[in-house]
Write a structure and sequence with these properties.
The complex is a heterodimer. Chain A is mainly β. Helices cover 0% and strands 54% of the residues of chain A. The radius of gyration of chain B is 13 Å and the shape is globular. The chains are: A mainly beta, B mainly beta.
């Protein structure tokens, strides 16, 4: 079936470096994408979202890039800090309803 | 604080028991959800309610029964608990998609352990 694909790998970066977390999706009907951050023992928290009519959106220290041609989504975190250590999830949504389909998550570890 | 809250945070129980998890949101949202997160962190939608009506019901055993007494509450009742039900359950809420936003706000989770 169609799904947002992201197995749970671990990305380890040095504090101060930039981080890039990738996500592949397979449903071409998806028109909305969202990144969540989940810290240990907490629920997922919204980071940034993007609609399919855009290819880039920037927030505070974060940028989401969307490449619809290859069905690829990425989250870039600038100047990664220890507080960025968490599991990051991408999710896709469709205009047909509120349902979000989540990928498997990437664990980001920031080394001091 | 405006938030999505869940009770209890931890729930340890034996196989065969019946238990409930409660969820409340004070964000004025009209859509609420239950997700199950397994030990590998995979988040799977279980149910979605809009204005107290069921709109999404994924392939979940009928031992799981959500109940929405009003727009601000969505409780999850589980009958005859099994070992495989052990997971973290998250409640979430959002405005309807027609409002132009898909962002879902998550509660802190309930860790259910079935022994």
């Amino acid at each position: 079936g169609e799904s947002v694909g992201l197995h749970l790998p671990t990305l380890s970066v040095q504090e101060g470096d930039n981080s890039i977390i990738n996500c592949a999706y397979s449903n071409s009907a998806s028109d909305y994408f969202i990144w969540y951050k989940q810290e240990s023992g907490k629920g997922p928290q919204f980071i940034i979202d993007i609609r399919s009519n855009m290819d880039k959106r920037q927030g505070q220290r974060v940028t989401v890039l969307l490449n619809k041609t290859v069905k690829h989504l990425s989250l870039q975190i600038a100047a990664t800090q220890p507080g960025d250590s968490a599991v990051y999830f991408c999710a896709e949504g469709r205009n047909a309803g509120n349902m979000l389909t989540f990928g498997g998550g990437t664990r980001l570890m920031v080394k001091p | 604080d405006t938030a999505v809250s869940q009770t209890p945070k931890y729930l340890v129980t034996q196989m065969g028991n019946d238990k409930s998890i409660k969820c409340e949101q004070n964000l004025g949202h009209d859509t609420m959800y239950w997700y199950k997160q397994d030990s590998k962190k995979f988040l799977k939608i279980m149910f979605s309610y809009n204005n107290k009506e069921l709109i999404i019901n994924e392939t979940v055993p009928n031992r799981f029964s959500p109940k929405s007494p009003d727009k601000a509450h969505l409780n999850l009742h589980i009958n005859s608990l099994e070992l495989g039900d052990s997971a973290v359950y998250f409640c979430a809420s959002s405005h309807t998609a027609l409002a132009g936003s898909y962002e879902q706000y998550f509660g802190p989770g309930t860790r259910l352990t079935v022994t």
